Amino acid sequence: QELIKRSGISTFGKNAVVCGRSKNVGMPIAMLLHADGAGETAAMDATTTICHRHTPPEQLAIFTRTADIIVSAAGVPNLIRADMVKPGACVIDVGITRIIDKTTGISQLVGDVDFEGVSEVAGHITPVP
């Protein structure tokens, strides 16, 4: 929420996609984006769609291409690619996965979003780690 607020992004009536449905990350973020923000609450009044790692890729792309805000917390490397992102969208990568390079044996942490590709399209993006 602070990332969105401090970036000056309005969420009222915007389309948001949360990819991930965990009780600790995905669902709380979806509820925060979706909840009624009338009064002094922290809610953000976005129209929110919840997807997950088993949402068919073509269906996920349909949802993300219309999203003003994408929050990915599925734990699937490169789940969100540039061709799936609406130009100017805010993309927040919460996913984190440790992968091992097969040639070097060195492990690294990666997010759900193809950062290099998506950063060419998105208006705002967060890196992982």
UniProtKB/TrEMBL annotation:
Q: Which Pfam families match?
A: THF_DHG_CYH_C
Q: Ranges for the Tetrahydrofolate dehydrogenase/cyclohydrolase NAD(P)-binding domain?
A: 2-129
Protein origin, superkingdom: Eukaryota
Q: What is one GO cellular-component annotation here? A: mitochondrion
GO biological process terms held by the UniProt record:
tetrahydrofolate interconversion
Which molecular-function annotations from GO does this UniProt entry contain?
A: methenyltetrahydrofolate cyclohydrolase activity; methylenetetrahydrofolate dehydrogenase (NAD+) activity; methylenetetrahydrofolate dehydrogenase (NADP+) activity
Q: Show the PANTHER family listed in the entry.
A: BIFUNCTIONAL METHYLENETETRAHYDROFOLATE DEHYDROGENASE_CYCLOHYDROLASE, MITOCHONDRIAL, C-1-TETRAHYDROFOLATE SYNTHASE, CYTOPLASMIC-RELATED
Identify this protein by name. Answer: Tetrahydrofolate dehydrogenase/cyclohydrolase NAD(P)-binding domain-containing protein
Organism annotation = Graphocephala atropunctata
What taxonomic ancestry is recorded? Eukaryota, Metazoa, Ecdysozoa, Arthropoda, Hexapoda
